[in-house]
Amino acid sequence: MTGFPRYAIYYTPPADTALSAFGADLLGYDAWTGRDRPCPDDVVNDVPDWAELTADARKYGFHATLKAPFSLAETRSERELCDACAGFAAAPRTVPMIRPVVDAISGFVAVIPGEVSPALQDFAAECVRAFEPFRAAMTAEDRARRKPELLSPQQRAHLDRWGYPYVMDDFRFHMTLTCRLSDERRRPILSMLQARYAALGITSLAIDRIALFCQPTPRSRFSILASWRIADR
């Protein structure tokens, strides 16, 4: 199995924003502090098994994947990875802007773009390529856990090339709020989360930063080591 610690390059909103609080409250965990936080009482009252429905997402914290979790290559260090993140963020580029909405994606409920953003797709692909030299080679066990037999030929190619199947043309930006739900369960939960999100009044979101997350041990949750704002062109 993959060695630890594991690292990931994610987008996550700044700690002092309404969107960050929205995600951390619903997941019951704040990746900025590495601490639990109570889920809203009204959500737990409406959905008594809310903690169970958010257990998987809680492990990773509120985020959108840019470079999926990986172990460091033997010749690389955490300090070098931090320096690479800083260098990547300092290079001027067009900062993607999206209209964020709460909706279903592959059975999950998540914050997703209201429309496809070519700039965001390009940005995510840049992240995959830029940090690939830091990723340790995938083990046979890790590959098997991805169930390659259920992936498309292109996704299997991505898995073998980049260690993760949902990259490049298969990338879909999402900030997960629940586990995969049946249609019957998802409908009322989606409506409830959409109403809570609408109250925030967020109509646009700049994907203007990257954050380095770390999972020290298999039983640990991911937490944020550092974040960097992207230099806008």
From TrEMBL:
<dbReference type="InterPro" id="IPR009389">
    <property type="entry name" value="DUF1045"/>
</dbReference>
<dbReference type="Pfam" id="PF06299">
    <property type="entry name" value="DUF1045"/>
</dbReference>
<protein>
    <submittedName>
        <fullName>DUF1045 domain-containing protein</fullName>
    </submittedName>
</protein>
